[in-house]
Amino acid sequence: MSKPRIVVGLSGGVDSSVTALLLKEQGYDVVGVFMKNWDEDDDDPHCPARQDFLDVLAVADKLGIEVEAVNFAQEYKDRVFSYFLREYEAGRTPNPDVLCNAEIKFKAFLDYAMQLGADKIATGHYAQVRERDGKFELLKAEDGTKDQSYFLYRLNQAQLSKTLFPLGQLYKREVREIAAKAGLVNANKKDSTGICFIGERPFREFLEKYLPKKPGEMQTPEGKVVGQHQGLMYYTIGQRQGLGIGGQGEPWFVAGKDMERNVLIVVQGHDHPLLLRDTLTATDLTWVSGEAPHTHWVYSAKTRYRQPDAPCSLNHIDPDTVEVAFGAPQWAVTPGQSVVIYESQVCLGGGIIV
């Protein structure tokens, strides 16, 4: 009987490499695919795609698996990047990783893997899939400091049924140990940070290439002008760095954007009331099970990735919107970001904060 074929998304990093290694050891027929999602600046030092591909080839050679490179740059531009620019232009702060997972890694890549005869795909995400009563659940990773279920909340039953997350039960240090023991070239490679297509380069400089600058005033909620902003798209709610407002007293924070007047609203003090919210509304909802959760039960939610879960209830759900009420006020809730709902370790889904 032929072994099940698993197509692994290899990025050149240690996580996806160890994913392929573990599956190979478990006796699967493993094929690696390197996804190229960004074409604009192949010669840019901030874009390490060439080195990443060389690392993928070295790992594939070591593991004795076939590897292919596939270019999804057009799909990425159409489905992820155009949305990213539209959101910034509207004054919101999108999370492209969430969309990249839903549209590229678990749609375009999944479709491609099926053409290669895959039984399932696997990635190096820190998360878990569990089948219960014929339904697939998305669970947090064992390593709470690396858990990536927040970025995967838009995955549906069909996608989860075809997905493996072999690192879900492991801690990051164990992953590096496995890689070192196997002699993988990238065992100590630094994790990539930042948005994939921006890399390590300055964010403002990147956005300027695509969207026109529109400077304007920074004002307090009372209307006092305290500085000038470079363009509302460059700022996010709760931002403290780079405002250029000196003076005495507590530090300044971005608390809001008035798009019509092109004014950035700033306040003093980390705990200013305008930075705290005990309810939010989200739209563009997706639920992992295909069904909305109950209202008025106690769940927990994250309004940004690096944040402890906050107890909440869902007061009102219709097909398009949910109202989330928190037990304690949440700091710097940001339109365009995702709110992700959990029941203990199970990720139920979520939506985009409006």
In short:
The protein is α/β, with parallel strands linked by helices. Helices cover 24% and strands 31% of the residues. A six-stranded antiparallel barrel has the order 12-15-14-13-16-17. Strands 3-2-1-4-7 form a five-stranded parallel beta sheet, sandwiched between helices. Strands 9-8-11-10 form a four-stranded mixed beta sheet, with no helix packed on it.
Computed Rg: 22 Å
Provide the low-confidence segments as ranges: none
DSSP summary: helix tally: 7
Q: Going across the major beta sheet, what is the strand order?
A: 12-15-14-13-16-17
Considering DSSP H and I runs of 4 or more, what fraction of the residues is helical? Answer: 10-25%
Major beta sheet, specifics?
A: 6 strands, antiparallel, barrel
Report the count of strand segments.
17
From the 3D structure, determine the CATH topology of the largest domain.
Answer: Rossmann fold
- What is the chain-wise order of helices and strands? EHEHEHHEEEHEHHEEEEEEEEEE
CATH superfamily of the largest domain: HUPs
